[in-house]
Amino acid sequence: MHQTGLVSGSCWYALQVRQRHEKAVSAALRNKGYEEFLPLYHLRRHWAARIAEIELPLFPGYVFCQFDRSDRRAPIITTPGVIRIVVFGAEPVPVDDREMAVVHEVIDSGIAAEPWPWLAAGQRVRVVHGALAGLEGIFLESKTQHRVVVSVTLLQRSLAVEIDSADVLLLRPLRQAALQHRGAEKSSLAGTT
After folding, report:
1. Which of 94, 132, 127 is closest to 113 using CA atoms?
2. Which of these ranges, 4-18, 47-61, 153-167, 177-191, has the smallest mean pLDDT?
3. Cα separation, 117 vs 106, whole angstroms
4. Measured between alpha carbons, how far is 42 from 23 in angstroms, rounded to an integer?
5. N or C: at which end does the chain have fewer Cβ atoms within 10 angstroms?
6. What's the mean pLDDT in 173-191?
7. Cβ atoms of residues 61 and 16 within 8 Å
8. In the chain, at which residue ranges do the beta strands (DSSP E only) sit?
9. How are the residues of the chain apportioned to helix, strand and coil, as percentages rounded to the nearest 5?
10. What is the rounded CA–CA span in Å between residue 52 and residue 72?
11. Residue 121 above 80 pLDDT?
12. Is the pLDDT assigned to residue 188 strictly greater than 60?
């Protein structure tokens, strides 16, 4: 599993790039000495009389780059195809380390993944068996398939991984867990007076 933020103050940042320039930007950053990450997925396309398998970005229009916030950003921004570093206000915002680790874990597992629409709510689950054991995400169910959706909050983008429903454990919703925790505190305080 990849670890993020290991190099003194170094974090992963999302770079918005021109559509269909993700691979070129990734290679250019690598050539400049930056650690970059472009998660890809495989898609079968039918053209005329042939079928081709192509690699496409899981997060179209974005490449991840690891650097220290205090580093000069000009070499990154001037890379052909880079539009900007994703910011909040005027400051670059690092991608959450846990979310970045999960994306790396999904890619490293070799399990087929695909882009998925952004989801902010749903049933949170933890995978308890298989190559992705320990991964947390949002569980989706269709008539024939089950998926765990992993989201990158900063980009408001997600990816989906097929999973067997028997391999996941439903996590308590945070609000419900907090209310139960608060109730337990009140009852323990009432017992001490």
Report:
1. 132
2. 177-191
3. 17
4. 14
5. C
6. 48
7. yes
8. 10-17, 35-37, 40-47, 50-57, 62-68, 82-85, 87-88, 91-92, 113-116, 123-127, 136-141, 146-152, 157-162, 168-170
9. 25, 40, 35
10. 41
11. no
12. no
In terms of Cα–Cα distance, which of 69, 3, 84 is closest to 37? 3
**Tokens representing 33?**
């000495």
Q: What is the CATH number of domain 1-95?
A: 3.30.70.940
Contact 12, 66 (CB under 8 A): yes
Q: What is the dihedral of CA 129, 134, 139, 144, to 10 degrees?
A: -30
Q: Domain extents for the chain? A: 1-95, 96-193
Amino acid at 5: G
Q: Report the SS3 class of residue 178.
A: helix
Q: Which amino acid is at 98?
A: R
